[in-house]
Amino acid sequence: MSELAALLLYATAMAFTPGPNTTLSAALAANRGLAHAMPFVVAVPVGWCLLLGASVLGLGAAIAAVPALGQALRWGGVAYMLWLALRLWRSAGTGPATQVERGADFDLGFGRGVALQFVNAKAWLNALTISATWITVEGQTLLRAAQVMPIAAAYGLVSNFTYACVGAALRGWLAQGQRLRNFNRLMAAALAFTAVWMVRT
Q1: Which residues contact 198 (CB under 8 A, 6 or more apart)?
Q2: What is the mean pLDDT of residues 109-120?
Q3: Contact status, residue 10 vs residue 148, Cβ threshold 8 Å
Q4: ∠ CA 201-91-109, rounded to 5°
């Protein structure tokens, strides 16, 4: 029970603090609506569990053993985050277009949501920490993975759905004036900041 409590506390802190996934979930729902954001929201826990499974199977150790591969993943992630930030920054026009039209050029689907986890430094940190601390135990790895992964998936789904609901709730308010543009640029700045953090870690 103490291990479970520690896992739940860690998962709560990591899942609900802002990061690339939650930022994009909120931005997608604010721009396109909650229903349109749901494929990305669902993709996050799917991709993250695939990453966690790969870490348990030794992907993290393999990357640690080949520094060039780790650097390639890091810089690939930085470039992808900056590209997303630029798209989000440009997505809201300044003219009299409707909210839906102004945010229509920013979109992320299920496939991109899954792929994002493999270049997301926060996702890697979570996967490696949970794998080493709660899953990889001699003779119990498969059992522990079966116990931990549903918890990890649930937290990933609930946290991103919560942020998406916040974005959707703000949609009407953001439709007035330049609020959507300012919101998108704030979210873009948060993504860019995350990219800078990835460089420094």
Answers
A1: 74, 77, 78, 81, 121
A2: 92
A3: no
A4: 70
Task: Give the Cα separation of 79 and 88 in Å (integer).
Answer: 14
Q: Is the dihedral of CA 128, 133, 138, 142 positive or negative?
A: negative
> How confident is the model at residue 149, as a pLDDT?
93
Q: The tokens 């998406």 sit on which residue?
A: 164
Tokens of 113: 């949501």
> Which helix (H) or strand (E) element contains residue 81?
helix 67-90
User: Which residues are within 8 A (CB) of 135 and not within 5 positions of it... i.e. 6 or more apart?
Assistant: 52, 56, 141, 144, 145, 148
- Can you tell me the distance from the alpha carbon of 188 to that of 166, in angstroms, rounded to the nearest whole number? 17
CA distance 78 to 72: 10
pLDDT digit string (tens) for 128-172? 889 988 998 878 898 999 999 999 999 999 999 999 999 999 999
Q: What is the largest CA-CA distance in the chain?
A: 63
pTM of the model: 0.85
DSSP 119: G
* Residue 58 CB neighbours (<10 A): 12
| Domain ranges for the chain | 21-28+38-200
